Amino acid sequence: MLRRLLLQASSTRRLPGAHFTPPSSPLLLRYRPLSSSSPQIPHTHLEDNPDQPSATISIDRSGLCNPPEHSHEPCSDSELVKHLKGIIKFRGGPISVAEYMEEVLTNPKAGFYMNRDVFGAGGDFITSPEVSQMFGEMVGVWAMSLWEQMGQPGKMNLVELGPGRGTLMADLLRGASKFKNFTESLHVHMVECSPALQKLQHQALKCVDEEGTADTDEKRTVSTLAKVPVSWHATLDQVPSGLPSIIIAHEFYDALPVHQFQRASRGWCEKMVDVAEDSKFRFVLSSQPTPATLYLAKRCKWAGMEEIAKLDHVEVCPASMELTQSIADRIASDGGGALVIDYGQNGVVSDSLQAIRKHKFVDILDDPGSADLSAYVDFASIRHSAEEASGDVSVHGPITQSQFLGSLGINFRVEALLQNCTEEQFESLRSGYWQLVGEGEAPFWEGPDEKVPIGMGTRYLVMAIVNKKQGVPVPF
Fold first, then answer.
1. Given this model, what pLDDT does residue 110 score?
2. How confident is the model at residue 104 (pLDDT cuts 50, 70, 90)?
3. How far apart (Å, rounded) are the C-alpha atoms in residues 284 and 346?
4. Checking phi first, is residue 326 left (phi over 0); if not, alpha (psi -120 to 50) or beta?
């Protein structure tokens, strides 16, 4: 029935480029720098005072430096641009791409994620939870399955890293609310550094603040979707340890800052961000080894010389390695598991960093803070980092998102939802299903070409890290 619903259409269309070959991101095949120009500050020329006598000593100023006079015109640079230029000036040289990326995304005052809602059709990009409720529901099925494998502990931390609007967790809790034994064991922990997004998450989870009980005077926040307590933290390290944890990282790793290296005549050089003579940002290569070179050496060791020899560019993500080690340590000591869902590849990542503004691709260095920056996730590096951190965890996958959702029963779920839905809901469900598990352009689409649903089923990968005592997690 499902295949028949998806394929029914008066005509089947496919545009060129319906299938994308990896490595590519869900929105951009490859970063393409754009040319940009900036208005030049006019040079102010000082005239001689005509009231002075003409018989004066003549001074030849032709050999002197004549910088532009200070202008009282308002500066067009944003606060973040001024901040970045200030860092470069203070350092006396360029900064790494990773530091640039971190400032652009999470600067407390002007970072891309910090003070606005960047998700959904009205934002800069769309994520899987925003496509369909079925995504969060299937992640909930996985979490409940792992909880059962863990022996159904009476207390457990359910942690989400970078929850966005809170849509995934809201759909998960709503779907799991009928399973009281599971939800009564949960304490939800949202790891989010953005105050603006924390507010959206609070609303999405329909949270209320409750007074303290007889056992404690502390107030607590509770999601009315499943009557579970909810807490917010800026980092994973702030989440209390000592209890089994299920950690969800959906499109979180791709926003971690990456260091980029380029092969040159003198060997591998780190790609840096500097300020050019026209006051615009530009890329330069480091003149000597940088601290991140140690991580490059580790990544090259994991990969082997044959794989590295084929590449002229390599991206490494120390933050990803350190986060994975922290997750593995927690799972090894407390039990539980982690689910990583992101776009990437199971090997060394080359030149994948990209910028997206209002669903369009822009220059990475253009108007920092106004566009999302993301890079391909190196799933092989996650595996090595976890296995190196602890011998008590096992790593499974990656498998495609289509395989993951299909094995958990998304086909049965969409069929059940289609039984009682309006025409508008039917189209939304069909389109959402295709975007989650399909590949390329939807064959049933009859609307405008620019709005054709693009399947993400094979472009997103899924990996699990679990405590070895719990066995192999579903569906790996």
1. 82
2. very high
3. 29
4. alpha
* Reported confidence tier of residue 214, pLDDT bands at 50, 70, 90: low
Contact 456, 155 (CB under 8 A): no
For 464, half-sphere exposure in the C-beta direction (CA atoms, 13 angstrom radius) is 23
3-class secondary structure, 85: helix
Find the Cα–Cα–Cα–Cα dihedral 250, 255, 257, 263, rounded to 10°.
100
From residue 209, give the alpha-carbon distance in Å to each of 185, 223, 229.
19, 9, 10
pTM: 0.81
Residue with token string 């794989």:
307
- Residue 365 is encoded by which pair of tokens? 């260095």
Instruction: Identify the pLDDT of residue 20.
Output: 30
Q: What is the mean pLDDT of residues 130-142?
A: 93
Distance separating alpha carbons of residues 83 and 283, to the nearest angstrom: 18
Question: What's the sign of the alpha-carbon dihedral 226, 227, 233, 238?
Answer: negative
Predicted confidence (pLDDT) at residue 83 exceeds the cutoff of 60: yes
| pLDDT bucket at 358, cuts 50 / 70 / 90 | confident
Q: How many Cβ atoms sit within 10 Å of the Cβ of residue 411?
A: 16
Burial class (CB in 10 A: 0-12, 13-18, 19+), 474: middle
Kindly report the length of the chain: 476
- In 392-408, which positions are buried (b, 16+ CB within 10 angstroms) versus exposed (e)? ebbbbbbbbbbbbbbbb
- Amino acid letter, 119: F
Pairing of strands 95-96, 372-374: unpaired
Bigger pLDDT: 389 vs 132: 389
Do 319 and 385 form a contact (C-beta atoms < 8 A)? no
| Cα–Cα distance list, 319 to 29, 228, 241, 447, 464 (Å) | 24, 31, 21, 42, 18
